[in-house]
Amino acid sequence: MDKGVLAMRLEKLKPYGIDFLFDAILTLRTPEECYAFFDDLCTINELKAFGQRLMVAKMLRDGETYAAIEAKTGASTATISRVKRSLHFGNDGYALVFERLEQAGKLPPAGAAFGDGREEAAAADPLRPPGSKAPAARAGKTAGRGADAAALAAEVRDEEAPDEARVRRAAAPGLPSEA
């Protein structure tokens, strides 16, 4: 993509507070501060998507195949393609971040496991059979409010007492019911 076209596209974001957002992010000093801020700012699925894209970019940079990346991260081939396009024709943002992570000694070596959280999520949900995908993933990675609502419902379910959670699941369509 022509850098002038990209600059115009990014310029259109200015009225949406993007500069303010970037200034806010640049004030964060520790991973704990990042966790607190991004937990307030983003949904769980949005944060997972950011992390997944960064993992995909690193794996592409390391020469891994689409099949390997898809298997290790759960990213769709469309996501992998978009990230690859950014690596080759973007603003070199990934390259800048990877260079700085490498300088700081924080860039994982090629082939390193990232810990995508799928195992932990499955272990935390006693209603999901081991190895099965999340309901949103089974439904073609549902986007928008439906996915956010499902994530919120799962969070609420985890925080409620077992009896309250059972009643809520029985009344909420789309959530797995207890057998």
Short description:
With 179 residues, the protein is mostly helical. Helices cover 64% and strands 0% of the residues. The protein has three domains: 41 residues, no CATH class; 71 residues, Trp Operon Repressor, Chain A (Orthogonal Bundle); 54 residues, no CATH class.
List descriptors.
3 domains; mainly alpha; Trp Operon Repressor, Chain A
Can you tell me about this structure?
The chain has 179 residues and is mostly helical. It has three domains: 1-41, no CATH class; 43-113, Orthogonal Bundle (Trp Operon Repressor, Chain A), CATH 1.10.1270.10; 118-171, no CATH class. Helices cover 64% and strands 0% of the residues. It contains eleven helices and no strands. The protein has helices at 3-11, 18-26, 31-41, 44-61, 66-73, 77-89, 93-103, 118-124, 135-138, 145-159, 162-171. Helix 4 (44-61) crosses helix 6. The longest helix is centred in the first third of the chain and has 18 residues, at 44-61. The protein is globular. The chain starts with a helix and ends in an 8-residue tail after the last helix.
Structural class by secondary-structure content: mainly alpha
Cα separation of the termini? 53 Å
Average pLDDT number: 75
CATH overall fold name of the largest domain: Trp Operon Repressor, Chain A
CATH class wording of the largest domain:
Mainly Alpha
Low-confidence stretches: 116-130, 132-147, 155-169
Helix content range:
55-70%
How would you describe the shape?
globular
Count of strand segments: 0
CATH architecture of the largest domain: Orthogonal Bundle
Largest sheet: none
State which percent range the strand residues make up: under 5%
Order of helices and strands: HHHHHHHHHHH
CATH superfamily of the largest domain: TrpR-like
Radius of gyration: 19 Å
- How many structural units, i.e. domains? 3
Count up the helices.
11
